[in-house]
Amino acid sequence: TRDGAPVLLQNVADIEIGPAPRFGMASVNGEAAVILSIQKQPGANTLLLTERIDQELQSIQTQLPEGMEINQSIFRQASFISLAVSNVIEALRDGAILVVVILFLFLWNFRTTGISVLAIPLSLAVAILVMKGLGVTINTMTLGGMAIAIGALVDDAIIDVENVFRRLRENRALPVNQQNTVRAVVYEASKEVRGPILNATLIITVVFVPLFFLSGVEGRMLQPLGFAYIIAILASLIVAITVTPTLCYYLLPNARIMEKKEESWLVERLKGMYSKVLNVVLKRTALVIGSAALLIVITLVSFLFLGRGFLPEFQEGTLVISAVTLPGTDLETSNEMGRRIEQILLDHDFVVSTSRRTGRAELDEHAQGANAAEIDVQLDLSNTPIEAALEELRSALTIVPGTNITIGQPIGHRIDHMLSGTRASVAIKLFGSDLYALRGDAERIRAAASTVDGVVDLSVEQQADVPQLRIYANRKAMATYGVTPGQLAETIDVAFAGETVSQIRENQEVYDLVVRLNEEARNDAATLKNTLIDTPTGSKIPLSLLASVREERGPNTISRENVQRKIVISANVAGRDVGSVVGDIQQQIQNTVSLTDGYYIEYGGQFESAQQATRTITLLSILSVLLIFLILYQEFSSGRIALLIMVNLPLALSGGVLVLYLFLDRELNVAALVGLITLFGIAVRNGILLVSHYMHLLEEGKPLREAVFQGSMERLNPILMTALTAGLALIPLALGGGEPGKEIQSPMALVILGGLLTSTFLNMVVVPVLFMRVRPNQRTAKRETSQP
Hints:
The chain is α+β, with helices and mostly antiparallel strands. Helices cover about 55% and strands about 15% of the residues. The protein is built from 28 helices and 19 strands. It has a six-stranded antiparallel β-sheet. Helix 8 (about 180-205) packs antiparallel against helix 24 (about 670-700). The longest helix is centred in the first third of the chain and has 36 residues, at about 215-250. The termini are far apart. Residues about 775-788 have low confidence and may be disordered.
């Protein structure tokens, strides 16, 4: 009241019903929309949760006003997960079928095949029960681990069945008075291979140890795969030493095939060809050893020239397009720019739908300015390869002026964010103290990087000077009127940003009552200067008496990392590996860009993470190789024999490197590197089987050459079966590189498959020759084979 008269709000302020400040806008297929993002709690099952959300949304749809529709298919992670899991399960099934076919072709008998194949469901069942007990979920990575192991799960059972089967036939061929009991034959035959399969399984487990020391994204993704693989392999070992001999005892002695002296047609033909090859190579040991040494040298040199990458691209069928225009662009203009980009995208036949978020929601944790938009694009790639689609979209979007556009996929986009804080796979971080010097150097770096082949989506972090109203406090004047800096700052904050002072209730609706200066006063320096400020004495004085108000220009944003000012030049890579592209960028910048004194560059993103992961795996793999040597030395009590068997490592590497050159664009990424170390364990298994049998025959008193020839012929069947089942079971994964869910497992499968083919062939040729050269004397042979 004043002089007894009431003073109403309408006498001192304009009271209007209006919208709260808008920070963002959204659209779907170019039409205005509200986009609601739902995130799950950690540990929740995405598929089950999505199903429940769908039910709720369908219920809500029936209650919406006419004309409003809920679109549930804008972006559904559950769709990708379901498809990925389905694809991996199919690979698991097809791999198991191939294993059965291979076993039957070699064994040519339902009983022996059935006993061997039974190891697959039993091992997988044990693995699943163990994972369930430990709280490990069934997902694409754990399923992928079991799919990669599917062929190796029967290896121990194959070795046991084949040896029991052969020993039973030999026993049946003896005179009746010299035959042993079935129980004794089965026991001795299983015992004969027990040591080799136990050590081989231990070695396969050891080579996976480096996975559990990986950190970051690659560790979180690959550790479940390694865990599932190890559990399945260990389960197969338990099955092979318990269930398999028991089944052999009950099912094999009375089988009709025991009466046949000849082996299957396939095995007879393979042994006929191998005996000829073996006779030749045992006569030309120097040539074989020299050729193997040359192959190892070529492999190691070729390995050095491989490109480097992080993780394979995920095939999600969805793109995330980031479009950032000039800082200071208002929301309406930015929205129109986003609408134009959407229309360009929808003009392509392979684009199914688009959904765009420009700016941000009021409480959005994904903070971006009004000048930035993020567009999710659903694709139909049934008739268009992803590489061609990306190239076409990048070309079409070049017509949008003044905009930095980056194209990625949802998972890759988020991985890049986690690795470097940028929207691209390569981040060149420039550090310095002066913003304007940073901008100049950044532009020169961008120009240098643009000349490198394979660089796409190249952009400099958008920075510009934008109009600003700056208020400079006059501390002497403020002290005169008793106004503290905190009080002045609070007043200015309320004047510009507003403050909720109450709530208005109408029926069941509640609205905030916000007080702030009107739009004219907020945008005009002269009006702002005359705005009255309350003082502690009760008087009101204009702002101009307490501070100076100036219209200036200043930076739209200042980025820092480790207290240092920075600006980021980002890029994606297409058609080449990340490592080679970053190497060329570094060389180009070094040759053509002279940085301001005291300024420096750091490279981040996938390149940095790939280097770190490769370094970790390489160092720990060296330790794994040493452990393999110790296991072999413990088994054979001979350093020479252990080294002889480890020749399989570079021999296996030759096939893996060949695959990288032929099928994986010379890119050694983390997935392919894991495939190589997996290959080491599987390859050494065959060497153990071969050499342990040589030693067993030497212990029986056979001459060296006869022991090598007979041992090689007798181990040809199990070695070929284990190698082919382990390798061919990977074909469904190897051929599925372009399918969701198989992106990481496919390079691993290809490398393992290629390495197994070369190592198996070379193992059967080079190891016999080397063993002839190592040729332990009879005393050493007896000591080294005290355990067959």
